[in-house]
Amino acid sequence: MNQSYREEEDWIIALQNGDEKGFEQIYQKYWPKLFSAAYNHTRIRETAQEIVQEVFVSLWVNRSTVTIHTNLQGYLLRAVRNKIYDHFDKQNVRSKYELFVSVQQPNAINFTEQEVIYTELDELVHTEINVLPETTRQVFQLSRFNGFTIPEIADEMQVSVKTVEYHLTKALKHLRLRLSELLFLLATLLVI
């Protein structure tokens, strides 16, 4: 068994046992490769960072049940590829929605209403962020608005990587749930 595979095998075992050091080693080793893969497809730095961050959050959250049939790099690259597909699917839905809205209303009214809707959605997003518990809100803002990585947030807030991932996952679940409800309501109102 070669040395790099042995290290990787040890990292996986440490990860599955909830050892943050094992997770950090995986993170440090594979972040650049995963970011490069995501960036090559999206060509947007923030989107690529978000995709990779979601992969690592998922890896940590599911660490006790994760099963890696190939090598760790292959597993992580496949997870990134799936997130990229999800990203483009969401973009496609958004484009169809924008086309639907533009066809439903005259252009002058459409522009004004879209501006109002955008402003209202922006306010709703910030309202939802503000109702998050303080630590969760701070983790989310450092991640999404300041572009910090999970280890950077942990260092900045002087908490563990596991704590950061917990709060980031909590924030994303809350926002996805609330925003999907709001978008559904908005789409319903526009059809009426």
TrEMBL record:
One of its GO terms (biological process) is DNA-templated transcription initiation. SUPFAM superfamilies: Sigma2 domain of RNA polymerase sigma factors (SSF88946), Sigma3 and sigma4 domains of RNA polymerase sigma factors (SSF88659). Pfam families: Sigma70_r2, Sigma70_r4_2. Belongs to the sigma-70 factor family. ECF subfamily. PANTHER family: RNA POLYMERASE ECF-TYPE SIGMA FACTO, RNA POLYMERASE SIGMA-70 FACTOR ECF SUBFAMILY. InterPro entries: RNA_pol_sigma-70-like, RNA_pol_sigma-70_dom, RNA_pol_sigma70_bacteroid, RNA_pol_sigma70_r2, RNA_pol_sigma70_r4_t2, RNA_pol_sigma_r2, RNA_pol_sigma_r3/r4-like, Tscrpt_reg_LuxR_C. This is RNA polymerase sigma-70 factor.
